[in-house]
């Protein structure tokens, strides 16, 4: 491909290509580029002939050579065979409106006059069929009114009016289809596994196999640091799996023979041989896709209201047209009611308002699964939080060190020295704390022995050094403990997770681990107060001390600790019974019932896949700022839709009366009606200010 580098910053380059790229090959080129080592993402603009690539800086040389030397014609015979590849949308709002304008210019101005009526009639057939179906079903709906307006225009020789009505109706359908597709692309992008091939056991050999070809019963090898590619059962091996994507908890879980593992979780330590119990395409992602494809369930209440309102006005349009003809015997005046039927404006502009909101929410790292959730968010006055992974970070942190007979910083230094070899979340927390304290922990011990799911054993000065769980230190290794130490440890358990360290058969220290508050948690609560939320609560399965501490720091209205999933559901139902509109925000499987019970359920980025599936809104960024953004956005959407209703009813009612008074002709009425509809639709495409 003839291409040049147009602009470059660290980790991002914009290439400009000069050769002709077929629109059908855009995603093929995107796939080829994203397959390159170091490429994080690729976006191709068919309009500006540019390719924007984000990458690890050390790979820029090989990436640039590939793009500059690539032959576009090789894409013609290439087919993408990757279930997890996230396609770039081939058509944007620009393309949809542009194509509609091209068609209107072609059929209304460029096509020879003798041919225009013929093609207008051909295009009208599908609309007239819908009208006949309404008559057969004995319904007075918008489809019947549209068909009548088009038919009357054709019968009176006003082919331009008929073409304008059909153009606007077709544009509305295209924009609604675009909205659904964008939701699906955003969702697939956030949950994609990005795994192409896996190693499968074939007899005594390891065979590389495409993930899509893995069958139920196949034995799949999973190595340390890899994502689990399929749901399955462990048949051999031992490992620690981080199930944060499923449970919301960052602490790795022990997996051994007959343990269940889930696609999308990460094997932090060990190696597993897993028997697949589901095919790759039987994941929760596909289930969510099916839910979103049910567009009727995801239509906003205002969209449904717009359609029902348009339907309810149909009879008055027919009555008005009939009475006008009876009273005036003037067919032209009677037609005024048919040319301005409210339906085009109501059915076109309201979906665009929600389409723009959905698109903008996606840009703000928030996936909203249907327009109706914007309305529920706008009306909400109560919000309920889970604690872990929501108000607090899902990454553990060492809060304090309790030492016995040794300096606390020395205890932390030794702990970091022992833990630095092992990449699990608690070990990272210990090493991070030592680094914050500027503690140097050079090797002082023999080669450490890692005891899976228990701890570490090593020697310092020929004496045994141990670090790990209470079970490992006090029960397995039989380290003695005094009653005073036991009393202190029992009190610490109420607030922290504990990591024990022993040396020379004596308890040396206890490290207190905590999930810290998010930096933006307090600011988020204050912002919710400013937005008018009258009741802000927290429901958590954690102990009383930890829950009370978080509640006091954030100034919550209510909290309850050690609650079961059913308790969360009951509390939300109680709030709803009191007439409150409730938002629930959580990230774990135990939040799923509550998320589905609330008026709007919101899941966090590092939450469980099940929570993401059930939630109505999914925050893809690891912060709470997006929660405030989407609430503000929802209120602006609600206000914009209200203004649309007022404008549509006022403008089109005025046009009807001007037509009845013969101040304007039917052609002028139709033109002004279409122009006002396009104007409102264009306004709804503008960015919301949040």
Describe this structure in words.
Strands 5, 6, 7, 8, 9, 10 and 11 form a seven-stranded antiparallel sheet that branches. A seven-stranded mixed sheet has the order 12-24-23-22-13-20-21, sandwiched between helices. The radius of gyration is 32 Å and the shape is elongated. Helix content is 49%, strand content 19%. Helix 3 runs antiparallel to helix 6, helix 13 runs antiparallel to helix 25 and helix 13 packs parallel to helix 26. The protein is α+β, with helices and mostly antiparallel strands.
Mean of the pLDDT scores?
81
Task: Work out the radius of gyration.
Answer: 32 Å
Shape annotation: elongated
Distance between the termini: 41 Å
Beta percentage is 15-25%
CATH architecture of the domain at 397-514: 3-Layer(aba) Sandwich
The total strand number stands at: 24
Unreliable runs = 288-299
Mind telling me the CATH superfamily name of the domain at 397-514?
Calcium-transporting ATPase, cytoplasmic domain N
Can you give me a brief rundown of this structure?
With 690 residues, this protein is α+β, with helices and mostly antiparallel strands. It has 26 helices and 24 strands.
Indicate the topology.
Elements lengths: L2 E7 L2 E6 L8 H9 L4 E7 L4 E6 L4 H10 L23 H18 L5 H21 L5 H14 L3 H33 L5 E6 L2 E6 L8 E4 L9 E11 L1 H4 L5 E3 L4 E2 L4 E11 L7 H10 L1 H4 L2 H28 L2 H4 L1 H4 L3 H21 L2 E3 L2 H9 L2 E4 L1 H5 L5 E7 L4 H12 L5 H12 L12 E3 L3 E6 L2 E6 L1 H7 L6 H11 L3 E7 L2 E9 L6 H10 L4 E5 L4 H11 L3 E3 L4 H13 L4 E5 L5 H6 L2 E4 L5 H6 L2 E3 L5 H36 L5 H19 L6
Helix pairs in contact: 3-6, 4-5, 4-6, 5-6, 6-8, 6-13, 6-26, 10-13, 13-25, 13-26, 14-25, 16-17, 25-26
């Amino acid at each position: 491909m003839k291409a040049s580098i147009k602009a470059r910053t660290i980790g991002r380059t914009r290439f400009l290509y000069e050769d002709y790229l077929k629109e059908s090959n855009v995603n093929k080129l995107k796939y080829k580029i994203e397959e390159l080592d170091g490429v994080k993402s690729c976006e191709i603009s068919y309009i500006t002939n540019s390719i924007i690539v984000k990458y690890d800086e050390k790979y820029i040389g090989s990436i640039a050579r590939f793009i500059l030397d690539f032959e576009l014609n090789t894409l013609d015979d290439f087919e993408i065979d990757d279930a997890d590849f996230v396609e770039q949308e081939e058509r944007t709002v620009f393309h949809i409106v542009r194509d509609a304008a091209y068609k209107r210019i072609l059929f209304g101005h460029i096509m020879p006059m003798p041919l225009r009526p013929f093609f207008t009639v051909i295009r009208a057939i599908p609309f007239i069929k819908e009208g006949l179906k309404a008559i057969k079903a004995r319904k007075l709906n918008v489809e019947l009114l549209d068909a009548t307006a088009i038919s009357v225009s054709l019968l009176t020789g006003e082919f331009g009016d008929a073409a304008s009505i059909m153009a606007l109706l077709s544009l509305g359908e295209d924009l609604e289809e675009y909205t659904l597709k964008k939701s699906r692309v955003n969702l697939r992008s956030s949950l994609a596994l990005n795994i192409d091939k896996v190693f499968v056991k074939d007899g005594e050999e390891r065979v590389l196999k495409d993930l899509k070809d893995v069958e139920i019963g196949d034995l799949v090898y999973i190595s340390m640091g890899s994502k689990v590619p399929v749901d399955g059962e462990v048949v051999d091996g031992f490992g620690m799996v981080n199930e944060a994507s499923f449970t919301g908890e960052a602490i790795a879980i022990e997996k051994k023979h007959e343990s269940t593992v889930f696609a999308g979780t990460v094997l932090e330590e060990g190696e597993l041989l897993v028997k697949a119990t589901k095919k790759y395409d039987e994941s929760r992602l596909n289930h969510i896709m099916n839910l979103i494809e049910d567009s009727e369930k995801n239509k906003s209440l205002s969209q449904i209201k717009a359609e029902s309102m348009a339907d309810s006005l149909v009879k008055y349009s027919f009555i008005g047209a009939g009475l006008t003809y009876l009273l005036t015997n003037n067919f032209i005046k009677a037609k005024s009611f048919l040319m301005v039927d409210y339906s085009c404006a109501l059915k076109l502009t309201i979906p665009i308002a929600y389409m723009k909101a959905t698109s903008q929410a996606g840009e703000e790292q928030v996936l909203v699964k249907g327009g109706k959730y914007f309305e529920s968010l706008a009306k909400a006055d109560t919000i309920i939080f889970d604690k872990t992974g929501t108000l607090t970070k899902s990454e553990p942190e060492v809060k304090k060190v309790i030492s016995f007979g040794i300096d606390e910083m020395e205890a932390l230094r030794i702990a970091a020295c022992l833990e630095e070899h092992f990449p699990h979340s608690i070990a990272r927390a210990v090493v991070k704390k030592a680094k914050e304290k500027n503690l140097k922990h050079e090797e002082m011990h023999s080669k450490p022995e890692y005891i899976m799911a228990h701890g570490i054993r090593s020697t310092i000065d020929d004496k045994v050094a141990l670090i790990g769980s209470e079970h490992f230190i006090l029960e397995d290794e039989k380290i003695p403990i005094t009653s005073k130490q036991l009393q202190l440890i029992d009190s610490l358990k109420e607030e922290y997770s504990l990591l024990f360290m022993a040396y020379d058969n004596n308890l040396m220290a206890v490290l207190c681990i905590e999930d810290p508050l998010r930096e933006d948690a307090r600011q988020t609560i204050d912002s919710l107060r400013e937005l008018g939320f009258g009741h802000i609560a927290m429901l958590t399965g954690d102990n009383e001390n930890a829950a009370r501490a978080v509640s006091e720091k954030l100034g919550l209205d209510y909290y309850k600790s050690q609650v079961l999933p059913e308790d969360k559901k009951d509390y939300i139902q109680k709030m709803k019974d009191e007439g409150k509109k409730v938002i629930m925000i959580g990230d774990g499987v135990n939040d799923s019932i509550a998320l589905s019970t609330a008026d709007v359920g919101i899941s966090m980025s590092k939450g469980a896949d099940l929570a993401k599936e059930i939630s109505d809104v999914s925050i893809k960024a690891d912060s709470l700022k997006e929660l405030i953004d989407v609430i503000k956005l929802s209120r602006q959407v609600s206000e914009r839709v209200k203004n649309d209703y007022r404008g549509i009813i006022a403008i089109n009612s005025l046009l009807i009366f001007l037509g009845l008074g013969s101040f304007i002709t039917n052609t002028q009425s139709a033109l002004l009606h279409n122009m006002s509809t396009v104007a409102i639709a264009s306004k709804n495409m503008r960015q919301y200010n949040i």
